[in-house]
Amino acid sequence: MASGIRGFAANAAQPRAERYRVKATSLRELAAAEPIGLLRERLIVLAGQYDELAARLARSPLGG
Question: What digits encode the pLDDT tens for the residues 2-60?
Fold first, then answer.
């Protein structure tokens, strides 16, 4: 188990990644109900950005 700052960062990365995945799911649900195409597309793009953040944390040496 890591200690110090590196340990804190590693332990904090997974819950943060999970929050990003949950946010992405919520944004996709909003997009599915959005009647305005431009807003729907923007919500989908934003969801993808949250997914990418979560993936980066998973690939990070400190993230897992």
Answer: 567 666 666 778 899 999 999 999 999 999 999 999 999 999 999 999 999 999 998 87
Q: pTM for this one?
A: 0.78
- Residue 20: both structure tokens together: 């990003």
The answer to whether the beta carbons of residues 43 and 31 sit under 8 Å apart is yes
* CA atoms lying within 13 Å on the CB side of residue 31: 18
Does any domain span residue 21?
yes
Number of domains in the chain: 1
Write out the residue range of the structural domain in which residue 23 sits. Answer: 4-59
11 assigned to some structural domain: yes
Please report whether residue 64 resides in a domain. no
